[in-house]
Amino acid sequence: MSTITAALGSDRARRLRAALTGLLAAAAAVGAPFYFAPFQVFQLTMVLLYAVALAGLNLLVGFGGQISLGHGAFFAAGAYTAAVMLDRYDTGHLATLPVAAAGCFVLGLGFGVPALRLRGLYLALVTLSFAVFLPPLLKRLQSVTGGSMGLTVDKLEPPAWSGLAEDQWMYFAVLAVTAVVLLLARNLLRSRVGRALLAVRDNESAAEVMGVRLSLHKTLAFAWSAMFAGVAGCLYTWVIGFVSPDSFSFVLSITLLAGLVVGGLASLYGPLLGAAFVMYVPSVSQDVSEAAPGVVFGLLIIAVMFAAPTGLAGLPGRVRGALARRATRAATLDRTPGAPSAPGANPKSLAEPGPAAVLTPAEPAAVDADPVGAPPRTEKE
């Protein structure tokens, strides 16, 4: 009974801590645009939209067990969908969001078919080829995409009743979409689809024996992931107001994957941390070395991977585990009698020798015993 009560108490305390953390994070997110400068607010906005793209990539790589080096192409598809609708058809900004999401979802369904027969490096190569050939294709479709010059569209303007500046309004709009996307990803992972994805990731054969349809869930993983990347691309068009093929090279896909790995695979907070890494580390690298920012960026990735192999999201757990192991080791040494290296042990007691051992001879030794090999004695001797 006491064990059940303790478990309920710890669960209640954990939920309370999670609620307080969520409230503090929400308060900080709402108050951020009123505290920082416009450029810093723009950077925070970019972090949020990159987090949307990484949340989709996390569904595929972290929870689905597949790999993709072509998510920059889905990002570009969503961005160009919004740009074409705003430039050619003069639609509203909000109308572009569901269209970009639906279009990239269908594109992900079609692209998920090769995932049924490919895996590992072969699947990575196919997805990378998609990211490589899309920018030249966008340049060829000049009548629609504007070719190499790209398209310039209007940014998301704040309404008069809001009383907000342009950067603040865009921040709140992107924040609202990001919150909805992260909540959707969280609920999706806790549903039957999410449990099926985890089963496929851990063991495909066992998942198939349990009744999981591998083809369906692998394709859906690509579709959901592409949809989130398309939403992030649409938000990019809202914020930047300009798209061009050179903005979506294959380097973007590799950067997104690196950001996810640094942030933490299969973690709900990993996309946010990875998005901050993708946004701020290149600028820090540029400040450190204007001649070779890529070298600094690569060295920082290596340093983070050595310090936190499971990503930044798993770093607090690793620190807590190390502290717990150290405390357990110290307690064990304290309970061990005569341990010289036990922390907190009394040096005086360690210096004092213990009681001497008492030796009990079995038989008294003969003092005048003949040496071995000596001749026998006579009576006279």
UniProtKB/TrEMBL annotation:
* Record keyword Nucleus present: no
| Database matches in Pfam families | BPD_transp_2 (PF02653)
What keywords were assigned to this record?
Cell membrane, Membrane, Transmembrane, Transmembrane helix
Q: Which residues cross the membrane?
A: 41-61, 68-86, 92-113, 120-138, 169-189, 220-244, 250-280, 292-315
Main location class: membrane
Extract the CDD domains matched here: TM_PBP1_LivM_like
Locations of Low complexity compositional bias?
A: 361-381
Compartments (UniProt record): Cell membrane
What domain of life?
Bacteria
Q: Extract the InterPro entries matched here.
A: ABC_transp_permease, LivM-like
**Disordered: annotated segments:** 330-381
> What topology does the record note for this protein and the membrane?
Multi-pass membrane protein
Official protein name in the record = Urea ABC transporter permease
The species this protein was found in: Streptomyces glomeratus
Phylogenetic classification of the source organism: Bacteria, Bacillati, Actinomycetota, Actinomycetes, Kitasatosporales
